DNA sequence: TGAAATGTTGGGGCG
DNA sequence: ACGCCCCAACATTTC
């Protein structure tokens, strides 16, 4: 009996997996995963995401009765060899939208066609596939709100997920493949263990997290989501990235359980993810090239010292540093803080957004080419429907506004714990006696501010003016 | 999904 | 009593 390949990619789940559902109806399934760093090239998975991937594959393998076959290398080559060695009649997968993957998958589809092997691809990752929603004049949306409205009216934001396959018939055939450990996804440092200790990984955990969010966080989502120390955000991003959970499952469940302004706001955030994929598809250079070409002439500067300080969370601005340390310690950063540290890098430090992109790509468990590219361009002002350049966050005010008790700051910068709240956001203005009492010596155990806010703001506005 | 600069208003102190 | 000034507090404009 010939085998059906179910090729898992960014859909590491059993439920609401259209390719898998179709494949199991067809016959005996051979589930495979291919770590394809070759085709990914410079877009290959970052360090933090690899840790997640390792554990997620482990979980998926459990759900598949420990019969997930793992490979590494050029996916086309891997599949070609499987076809040569074994009797395979079809390959099933859910589509991905990264430009390098689209190109690769097209080539694979052609190869399969040539060899007379069926190839079936499905939509398992998006509510709106990028070609499904265009403006009247057939061009693509470049502004979020009209995109959102249209998607809403056309019914893209309500849907029914499909169920788990009733019965999995997974092949027992002996297949030459790798074991998970040989992919070497886990770094040898203790960093990876620490990062991952904050998370539960896999389909089951993702679903539990969704349920928890729907019972708790979402009830005050509209207001609470801006406060990094509150638990009002979903924390679903890494699960979504690896497809342990689908946007369809999320949307289906929120429609069932809530219906108010909090729902609307969360739905908008889910749709921002769709919009990012949409932009990436219609503008494949998004990860590297300014969406607005006038930014090609923007006078960024290069400064390794400033970049290092930002990366390590040693800028001297507590809300920025807390965010960067959250990222380093947990592989995640609260969205409000992502905007603050982004604005700081690009506007106050005047460093190119690409540096932020690269650091996030390596450190975030939820690093996602579409979201990361679109969001950094949004912050920089070079993107579609981006933040206007003059919108420059003041880290002191943002800290006071969104972490009024300083609880987020002291969670990640415990050395500031003894400092009275009134000086927590502008430490350098605290009297020496206060600093001494709090055990802080600026420049020793907490840095002096690396730039002057007022001056850097003026410089940023000048730079913006220069490309108008 | 900002912040700073500038403009306006209105109450209170005071000559 | 009245006008003048000061300055919060709030609103509008500008970057």
A few lines on this structure:
With 468 residues, the protein is an alpha/beta fold. 47% of the residues lie in helices and 6% in strands.
Kindly describe this structure:
The protein is of the alpha/beta class and 468 residues long. The protein folds into three domains: 3-124, HUPs (Rossmann fold, 3-Layer(aba) Sandwich); 126-159 and 204-282, Serine Threonine Protein Phosphatase 5, Tetratricopeptide repeat (Alpha Horseshoe); 293-465, DNA Cyclobutane Dipyrimidine Photolyase, subunit A, domain 3 (Orthogonal Bundle). Helix content is 47%, strand content 6%. The protein has a five-stranded parallel β-sheet, with helices on both faces. It is globular and about 80 Å long. It starts with a strand and ends with a helix. The structure holds a DNA duplex (15 and 15 nucleotides).
Helix content: 40-55%
The total tally of domains equals 3
* Stretches with pLDDT under 50, minimum 5 residues: none
Structural class: alpha/beta
Largest sheet: 5 strands, parallel
Rounded to the nearest angstrom, the radius of gyration is: 24 Å
Q: How big a fraction of the residues is strand? A: 5-15%
Number of strands: 5
In the CATH classification, which architecture of the largest domain applies?
Answer: Orthogonal Bundle
The CATH class of the largest domain, by name, is Mainly Alpha
Mean pLDDT: 95
Widest sheet, order of strands: 3-2-1-4-5
The termini sit apart by: 65 Å
What would CATH call the homologous superfamily of the largest domain? DNA Cyclobutane Dipyrimidine Photolyase, subunit A, domain 3
Give helix and strand order, one letter per element, not per position: EHEHHEHEHEHHHHHHHHHHHHHHHH
- Overall shape: it is globular
Q: What is the CATH topology of the largest domain?
A: DNA Cyclobutane Dipyrimidine Photolyase, subunit A, domain 3
H/I helix tally: 21
